Prior knowledge:
Number of helices: 10
Distance between the termini: 32 Å
Largest sheet: 11 strands, mixed
Bound molecules: threonylcarbamoyladenylate, magnesium ion
Shape: globular
Amino acid sequence: MLVPADPENVARAGALLRAGGIVAFPTETVYGLGADAFDAAAVARIFEAKGRPVFDPLIVHVSDDAMLARVVRCVPELARRLAERFWPGPLTLVLEKRDAVPAIVTAGLPTVGVRCPAHPVAQALIEAAGVPLAAPSANRFGAISPTRAEHVEAQLGERVDTILDGGPTELGVESTIVLLAGERPALLRHGALPVEEIEAVTGPLLDATRAGEARDAVPLAPGQSASHYAPRTPLRVVLADSVPRQERARAGLLAFRAPAAEPGYAAVRVLAADGDLRRAAAVLFEALHELDALGLERIDAEQVPETGIGRAIADRLRRAATR
Ligand code: TXA
Ligand code: MG
């Protein structure tokens, strides 16, 4: 059931969570599907609702340091500095977990991903529940991430106990994930916080997001399947203006900037007319949801510059294109 995220509904959702329920809620990145992180049975319901394989660990959302301390064994100096600089915000830190965190949350790993979300509804919900919330993105496994409550309703509907509607999310792509439990800090996922900003604090990170590099130095990021964020419509990544005219009539174009001339596609969604990457990230999944609903033969997604948050956009598009 989709309800407005007003204080009364947030309080009710907090009680649901304490009683083993699962609740979808907005964060500044995408909508999450939360459960009490200490309640293994409730967390199992998340995996069931999403159709998510159990080898894919969840991110635990906390509202303050005291809650963080209930989840992780220790907070290394570098983690402390990153948290001070970027929390609340779109950064997930992977740290050594406490025994109290059930294995289903971390897919059996000795580490746990934690983040403190900036969205006021997410913060209010964690406070109302009084427990850290294990929460993946609130989509069916492998499908496009939800940036609106309606996206959650369409994909998960009755499988969840309640959906708190806080309007469209601000950033539009998931948090950046950094592993701080190994010998050297490593980037596990590009996301809404540009890696350049993190490296300004940490120095160069090992890059575990690409096959090859850092393979021996860090454990592979689980759950980073090659195919992910995928619309039902086949999608390919193309260079702007490179597709022959005759291939466009029954396809949709996910343009990065405003096309110069009438491009001749059946449908066009422009991510950012002026080429602003943050604006593009904010509407990426929404534009994909929209194009996917049109029953097109194919979606051509224009390549975006791989700098700042553009790296996260490019990563999502590559995975959306993989079958
Ligand atoms: O912005 C976000 O991070 C959103 C919102 C809801 O907070 N959440 C999100 O969760 O994107 P999800 O489940 O879609 O992605 C979680 C990913 C896993 O697939 C895995 O790659 C990584 O986080 N992860 C979680 N725990 C980990 C761990 N202990 N070690 C390595 N990677 C981990
Ligand atoms: Mg996800």
